[in-house]
Amino acid sequence: MSIYQLKRKNSCTIEKLPQIGLLKSLGLREGMIVNIMSKQPFGGPIVVQMGKRSIAIARNIAEQIQVREVN
């Protein structure tokens, strides 16, 4: 499933990232656990938290990030 499909306050493990260099420079890596902090309305970005950092990811990129939900 894509990270954009998850609801707010859910945690997930990143399984596959698209080949976008900016994601790696922001610190996103396969195998990381991230928390969904917010999801903006009308197809806006999502905000994910990794450790103490939060980053916004555009919808078109978030739909390409494959994750597995963590309970």
Q: In brief, what are we looking at here?
A:
The chain is mostly beta strands and 71 residues long.
Characterise this structure.
The chain has one domain: Ferrous iron transport protein A (FeoA) (SH3 type barrels). It is 13% helix and 39% strand. It has helices at residues 21-25, 59-62; strands at 11-16, 33-39, 46-50, 53-57, 66-70. Strands 4-3-2-1-5 form a five-stranded antiparallel sheet. 18% of the residues are buried.
Write the layout of secondary structure elements.
Elements: E1 11-16, H1 21-25, E2 33-39, E3 46-50, E4 53-57, H2 59-62, E5 66-70
Antiparallel strand pairs: 1-2, 1-5, 2-3, 3-4
- Widest sheet, order of strands: 4-3-2-1-5
Q: State the end-to-end CA separation.
A: 15 Å
CATH superfamily: Ferrous iron transport protein A (FeoA)
Number of domains: 1
Keywords:
single chain, 71 residues, mainly beta, SH3 type barrels, 5-stranded antiparallel sheet, 13% helix
